[in-house]
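Morning run. Coffee first, then this:
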Amino acid sequence: MFYKKKLICTSIAMAMAGTVLPVAAQSPGMIEEVTVTGIRGSLQRAMDIKRDSKGVVDAISAEDIGKFPDTNLAESLQRITGVSIDRSNNEGSKVTVRGFGPEFNLVTLNNRQMPTTELTRSTRSFDFANLASEGVSGIEVYKTSGATRQSGGIGSTINIKTARPLDNPGFKASLGAKALMDSTNEKGDDITPEISGIVSNTFADDTFGVGLFLSSQKRDSRSSKGEVASWRENIDSIVNSNLAPGASVVDNRSAEALAHGNTWYPRNYELQIEDISRTRTNGQLVFQYAPTDAITTTLDYTYSKFENESERLNTGIWFAPDADGLITQAEIDSNGTYAFVEETCCDYSANKAFNESENENNSIGLNVDWQATDNLNLNFDFHDSDAISQGVGRGDSVFLILAAPNIVTKSADFRTGTDLPLRNIVWDTNFVGVENGLPTAASQDSLFGEARGNKTESDITQFQFAGTWENDVDSGITSIEFGMAHTDYTFRTRSFYSGQIAAGWYGGNQDVYDNSIFTRESLNDILDEFSGGGGDLDPDFYYDWDFEKGIAAFEEEFNGGQRLQAPFGGTPQSDHEINEKTFATYIQFNAEGDFNDLPVTLSGGIRYEDTDISASSLQRDTVALVWQGPTEWGTNLASDSSFSDEKGDYAVWLPNIDFSVEFSEDLVGRVSYSQSISRPTLDDMRATTSVTSAPKPGERTADTGNPDLKPFTSDNFDLSLEWYFDESSYVSVGYFRKLVDNFIVKQTVDQTIGDLRDPQSGPRAMQAQMDIDNGSGNNLHDQININLGNATGTPIVQDSADPLANFRVTTPSNLETATLYGFEVAAQYMFGESGFGVQANATIVKGDIDPDVSQTGFQFVLPGLSDSANLVAFYDKDGLQARIAYNWRDEFLRGTENNQPQFTEEYGQVDLNVSYETPWVEGLTVIFEGINVFDDSQRVYNRFDNQLRTATQFGARYNIGVRYTY
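And here it is:
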């Protein structure tokens, strides 16, 4: 019986078990040595993989059983040439390789494709924060594609490997305990535990093996952020029509900015303080049996659970330029940014949210490796894996807005050149509860509350068969690899929403909330790593409040005594499912020989894949257009929701060829060409048609998904030269070029939708217009109703005689191409037997898809493109290991939001790692780790550097612990 399994747990546990799964399609005689010792042994092993590989491959190897170079896998990967990472809550989470972001990199675990989930969407990107590292024996990053490897990674294929008991016979164990200290923590525990253990043993003359891995980690932390929610575009007419008496707008736009005519107005400026508690639990159990020397079977089960609980408070000011007469001052800078804004009115908001979610993952797998003859190896692999991310408890976004709504004027000043804008508030001193000119707990009123919950599921069933025929020759075709696979992958995303629940709308509800639930807090230590933060914040305080007590008062007064929570048991607000079934088959030829007395190797193959897609979304279809009044329009929806049913399919041929030559014993050159794909973005494949709820003439729009999207396709060219000049020492330089087709863009066309018709253009409207022309004196809407015998103002619903209405329909389509190219340089050097060594690498990436920051509307971009560099110095001798690592990533395009480009500023981080094998207890190692020891932080902006989007203050975290290895 197969048990349900989950993604990240699969990854996590498998990744963590130092004694687990097999690697499919492994060549006969290749036994992976799991036990490696020290930094030097780890680097030697990784270098050997790089040197012996087909194509361009980089690797990381465990330093010892239960000891990976970093506690976070993504933070280890970022030290590989060409790999950059994204951080979430100051931890490495997702990777970008050679400029291609997480959706363009395929992550496998022991060559098995794992399901991936996020709370709010279906995604193909893998989150490494869910993986503990203690059970990982190695990671391989394949930068060139091959017929034998699964498709899906234009940027790279990243394979996480775990060990197997029969590869390391006998009793093996590694037990570790750490105390984690996060310098950002304020409300949780200052010291949280991390415990892990790997145990394996073999029996019956090493023909049967069992491996077990368990790990648990808790981390409490705080995230502090300054944020502008969005920048509204081109609202000059709104601003100018809503100026307060005597107000003015100073326009300093340059001639270039005046020519493009675009402006941007800040939606708000607020601070976000989030206290987070997360717990990660992982487990893996592996059984191996080798009844003969020719057959090895492996059965494994993996489980993981990642629980996240946070309480977030957003406090700040919001601007409303489209409200009548609120703007008192504004100034536009040379780029078109409203760099200074002052408005009257309203609240110093305190939106507090409680979020509770969990990721749970399971996987069960079976692998049979059979050396059928001396020359033929066959491998069969099956796994059934699933993942689920979901809100639990009240939900993953439950909030209530309490605030002091007594602002006279509020302003944000982005002209100063500081990281954060300056803020100023003038208070109404006559408001309820004001003391010494400032609001108090007695001033806090309520606006509204709501609860949201999401549930995302992903399931993979995969069969793989691989064979290798070895030819007993020293030159010519030395081996042929062949195989096939079938993958059934299903994604489902649902969301549940309570709707907005009114909490008095600042109607004088101060008495609902007891003053004792509020606490005035200082902002002097918030965002003090940024200029304009900390003591520069004005006002320098905010009101925190007890979430459960505040919600209880809200529930009693405004929610009929009912609990505020996401309605998980009801009909979802949205429900999307996508299923992909892929059949693949491949063949690859490997050859060796001499050319001009130089040893050469050649590998060439082709992979064929055929994918069928079905997509279904729950939706209430729009069945009629309604002309509600002379200037207002609406729609009628079907009485019941129904599921759509859309299909798509594609087939691809993916050739590859890899050539290497040994110019000398230590100098290797490589040339590679391949075609690779990444599958379409899942959110774009949804089977939806969404019609605007206000279909006015000239504003009739709709959005559709496109399950028939084709995959991104890349032609990849690689050149590299590698000099292995000493033991564990090398220098390499490489050039890569990728020509990518079928990038997805939003295409808008005019078309009709179903039977939606225009009641303003049919026979009824034509007759009414004739009556108006004859002097009726009515407007068209009233005249139609008069002719129909209806009361004026009656909504006019389309009928079958009206013409079909045209809509501007936006659909994702495969339209764009792009070229990326770059250089990679890496060096590794051991200083003889001194124990000292150094690593360094740098990557330069270029492309022809830079965004135009002055352009509004859609433009094609590729996020993540950036240069990066690493410098690592280490010492490994006499039981003492120490490493200091610096990682740097240049500024890059983070992505677009509402068609607005966002840029992450350059970032650098220093990490430390020290361990000492104690002489007084054999096998006992003391460990110290420091991550981001200089408290480096990260800033994101829109278009221009004064258009702040987010400024997130990171902090250092430290681990102190012990590990015992037997």
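The two ends are 34 Å apart (CA to CA). Good start to the day.
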